[in-house]
Design goal:
Elements lengths: L1 H20 L19 H13 L7 E6 L2 E8 L2 H12 L6 E8 L3 H43 L3 H7 L3 H26 L4 H20 L1 H16 L7 E4 L2 E8 L3 E5 L5 E5 H6 L2 E3 L5 E10 L5 H13 L11 E7 L4 E10 L5 H19 L8 E6 L5 E6 L26 H10 L16
Helix pairs in contact: 4-6, 5-6, 10-11
């Protein structure tokens, strides 16, 4: 057992001596050799001075060496020069340590001199590159000119785009592509293609900042592009957008212009239009109207429905397909409510006038047949002074039993005479000079 312990100790001591005998790792920086194995202080100083004489910025630096300790005094232009001097001295073979007492110069002439020299050198470089710059500029102008000529024709882009607004957008994008190609070719001639990444990165950052600053404007502009492509409405269409109704006048790059039935101009941001609920009453030429009438509770309801429905069907502007319909809506306190529905072609018939005329003829037909349109009945109970209860009843007013039909409505109420005042106002708005309109009149509605 003792022999095993001795063997282990012998191995550990041998490994320790081997580890101590390994040479230290070599420095990553090369050592400047002075040419002999043993170096005197004079040789070290001479070697450092000879190196510094070749570097102009160390002209004012003085070197002295004593026992391998290098002392440097003087002035340099910047702190980076001091660091470089220390690194250079440390690389000289034979230097034990160094004592650098070099400061940055405060002499104005010495500090401005290198800057002036650099400006002169750059001016000479630019002057020598002037012919190449002119060639690069000429190539850029040629590429840009070709792109401008090719994108000048609007007819070509209008054939590709669904409307003039998108055609103008295509034309602007094409010109921008030619500008970018011209810049790339010019930079390639100048052998400065590395600037392309910097230019594109700067443009991206600027575009992002501008996008956040004008977020609402950009959102409305993109919405206008999508609306002009999808075309949910056309000029003169009567639409309702989030509860706001009116006749479509025009679509701009920021807002949709409506003319209300009262003649007022309504501007709705395109972002709201695109994200909102749009009800287009003009897309389908057929439109249904409905109204309600009440009859007495004791009336023959089936006969009343047939009489009024027949009167509505007899109107010349009410369509046979889809056919009119009638049904019982509800039972009220003193009457039964009947609902009547009919369809018209709103391209030829005014909707409001048609509905009003249908109500008139249906009411007249019921009254002429003897059906009463009752009023509410109220019963009042009043306690008298002698304690007895007296009842007072307000009886319903009976409708007129005159079988003669009422007089014909005035000509202004004729349903075939459409009210086009909103359409005329929308047309006047579109015809104003200098007003943009992104709607394509010949395109179909989505």
């Amino acid at each position: 057992m003792r022999q095993v312990v001795y063997a282990i100790l012998f191995c550990l001591l041998s490994f320790g001596s081997f580890a101590q005998s390994e040479p230290p790792p070599a420095s990553s920086e090369a050592v400047i050799d002075v040419g002999v194995a043993q170096h005197s202080d004079q040789e070290i100083a001479q070697r450092i001075r000879s190196i510094l004489r070749e570097i102009e910025k160390f002209d004012n630096v003085r070197i002295s060496v004593v026992s391998g300790v290098v002392t440097a005094r003087g002035e340099v232009l910047s702190g980076d020069d001091i660091t470089e001097l220390e690194t250079l001295i440390d690389r000289v073979d034979g230097v034990v340590t160094q004592n650098v007492s070099v400061t940055e110069t405060t002499d104005l002439a010495e500090r401005l001199g290198p800057a002036a020299d650099r400006l002169v050198d750059r001016a000479k470089s630019i002057f020598s590159l002037l012919p190449l710059l002119l060639v690069a500029l000429a190539v850029f102008l040629v590429v840009f000119g070709i792109g401008f000529i090719l994108t000048r024709s609007r007819r070509f882009w209008q054939r590709l785009a669904p409307n003039p607004f998108i055609a103008d957008l295509y034309m602007v994008l094409a010109r921008l592509i030619f500008v970018v190609v011209g810049i790339v070719v010019a930079l390639d001639i100048l052998n400065a293609t590395t600037l392309i990444g910097a230019v594109l990165g700067t443009a991206g950052v600027v575009g992002l900042a501008v996008g956040f600053a004008v977020r609402d404007t950009v959102e409305n502009f993109i919405a206008s592009i999508l609306l002009s492509l999808r075309r949910p409405f056309q000029p003169n269409d009567y639409v309702e957008i989030d509860g706001v109704g009116g006749t479509v006048s025009r679509l701009t790059s920021r807002a949709t212009i409506l003319i209300s039935p009262d003649g007022n101009h309504i501007r709705i941001p395109n972002a709201t239009v695109f994200k909102g609920t749009i009800v287009n009453y003009s897309t389908n030429p057929n439109r249904r109207f409905d109204f309600e009438l009440g009859v007495e509770s004791e009336s023959d309801l089936g006969h009343a429905l047939a009489i009024a429905s027949g009167a509505v069907s007899s109107l010349p502007y009410v369509l046979e397909d889809p056919a009119p319909s009638a049904h019982i809506r509800s039972v009220g306190d003193s009457n039964v409510v009947l609902r009547f529905q009919g369809w018209i072609d709103q391209r030829k018939t005014d909707f409001l006038k048609a509905r009003g005329e249908a109500i008139r003829v249906a009411k007249s037909a019921l009254e002429d047949t003897g059906f009463g349109l009752p009023e509410p009945i109220y019963r009042l109970k009043i306690d008298g002074g002698n304690g007895s209860l007296q009842q007072f009843e307000q009886k319903e007013k009976m409708p007129s039993t005159n079988p003669a039909r009422q007089s014909e409505p005035p000509e202004a109420a004729d349903p075939t005479s459409k009210d086009t005042e909103s359409e005329r106002a929308a047309a006047v708005e579109r015809d104003k000079p200098g007003q943009e309109d992104l709607l394509q009149h010949s395109s179909e509605t989505e």
